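User: Can you fold this complex?
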Amino acid sequence: GAVVSQHPSRVICKSGTSVKIECRSLDFQATTMFWYRQFPKQSLMLMATSNEGSKATYEQGVEKDKFLINHASLTLSTLTVTSAHPEDSSFYICSARDTGIKKLFFGSGTQLSVL
Amino acid sequence: DAKTTQPPSMDCAEGRAANLPCNHSTISGNEYVYWYRQIHSQGPQYIIHGLKNNETNEMASLIITEDRKSSTLILPHATLRDTAVYYCIVRDLNNDMRFGAGTRLTVKP
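Assistant: Here's the predicted assembly.
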């Protein structure tokens, strides 16, 4: 089946630094990818929709200058958490839409811990 | 506003069928019903989806009522590894996927 690779799986960083998370669709082209965040014992919250070759669409309340999204190719989207702070510590998950078979496939997630 | 309603938690005995209900009374004609599950600290895993007809695959069966206002996911022989949070989602194919609170299924020996 289709696979979405997300890297890194876990990152610990100091407050004020930036962290980049990569999301790759391995065996299909994804014109649209989605980024979610999840706090402990809560559901996934959609942060933004990433479209290849255009600007991302952010959900209300998500700072676009804080969470930079780049979708430069049909198989790669990146999320950069800029100037990370402890409140940004969360589980970040990407997904990619395989339009051919009407499914969304999810990456394995990135646990971000900001000290 | 939530498009689906699911019980917050359910228990099931190992080897028995797990029947997870979902209400989606405001579903529109072009929206599909999707089921995903999430095991702790992992990304969601696709299970099954359907529009009108009942569906079955190697993981589960999906039963959609005739009026499409509710559905049931059936795991025919639950195992301990099926313990997870199960999400029922309705969406148009061109739209994003938004998660509700889901049902935490615990399979007990």
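Strands of chain B lie at 9-13, 18-23, 31-38, 45-50, 55-56, 61-64, 70-75, 84-92, 103-108. Chain B touches chain A through 20 residues (CB under 8 Å).
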